[in-house]
């Protein structure tokens, strides 16, 4: 995979990981309720769940492109519509949502369990990955290239939320996030809508 193409993939994965939602709320809750270790544990196990969905998507996309190109195109457009809906939702979110979780006492074991369940219990991740990975997966793509895509999704998702957990160990970080939540939502919304338009325009080259 060319470096420029991988950088595009990494940027899109990072944008998806950074968007406020239930995953961020999960990490915030376990970090505030149990400290750095439960927060990092939730982040890592959430990333493993994301990687599982990414793996399923990569395998399925290759077969779908070859056998049913028209169906693949329809699925891609549906994915683009979903991304646009997420963007509009983020633009309308304002200051509330995932940046104001209720803290509760927690343990690393609970954090690991909930980290996986939040990821696997969110089938919308499949739609997100279909829209995202449709720009990068081709029928002739090697196993190594597919592994790089899956590893990128895992590392970026886990890395971002580990940074969130570590950052929240410092008392000044969360108030800053809460004060700027409306700007985080707005920037995320614009980027998601732009990504939806890019998906409609065609594969990245």
UniProtKB/TrEMBL annotation:
Q: Where in the sequence is the signal peptide annotated? A: none
Q: What is its main location?
A: membrane
Q: Which organism is it from?
A: Vreelandella alkaliphila
Source organism, top-level taxon: Bacteria
Keywords (A to Z) from UniProt: Cell membrane, Membrane, Transmembrane, Transmembrane helix
List localization entries.
Answer: Cell membrane
Keyword flag Cell membrane: yes
Name used for this protein in its record:
Lysine transporter LysE
Q: Name one Pfam family in it.
A: LysE
Membrane spanning segments where? 41-64, 71-88, 116-136, 143-163, 183-201
Q: How does it sit in the membrane?
A: Multi-pass membrane protein
């Amino acid at each position: 995979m060319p470096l420029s193409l991988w950088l595009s993939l990494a940027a899109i994965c990072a944008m998806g990981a950074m968007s406020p939602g239930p995953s961020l709320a999960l990490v915030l809750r376990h970090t505030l309720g149990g400290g750095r270790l439960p927060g990092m544990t939730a982040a890592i196990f959430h990333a493993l769940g994301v990687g599982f969905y990414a793996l399923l998507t990569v395998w399925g996309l290759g077969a779908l492109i070859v056998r049913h190109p028209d169906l693949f195109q329809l699925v891609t457009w549906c994915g683009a519509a979903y991304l646009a809906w997420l963007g509009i939702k983020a633009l309308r979110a304002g200051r509330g949502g995932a940046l104001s979780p209720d803290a509760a006492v927690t343990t690393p074991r609970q954090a690991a369990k909930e980290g996986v369940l939040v990821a696997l219990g969110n089938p919308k991740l499949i739609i997100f990955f279909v829209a995202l990975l449709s720009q990068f997966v081709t029928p002739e793509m090697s196993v190594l290239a597919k592994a790089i895509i899956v590893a990128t999704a895992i590392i970026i998702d886990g890395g971002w939320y580990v940074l969130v957990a570590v950052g929240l160990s410092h008392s000044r970080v969360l108030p800053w996030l809460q004060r700027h939540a409306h700007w985080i939502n707005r920037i995320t919304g614009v980027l998601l809508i732009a990504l939806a338009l890019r998906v409609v325009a065609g594969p990245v080259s």
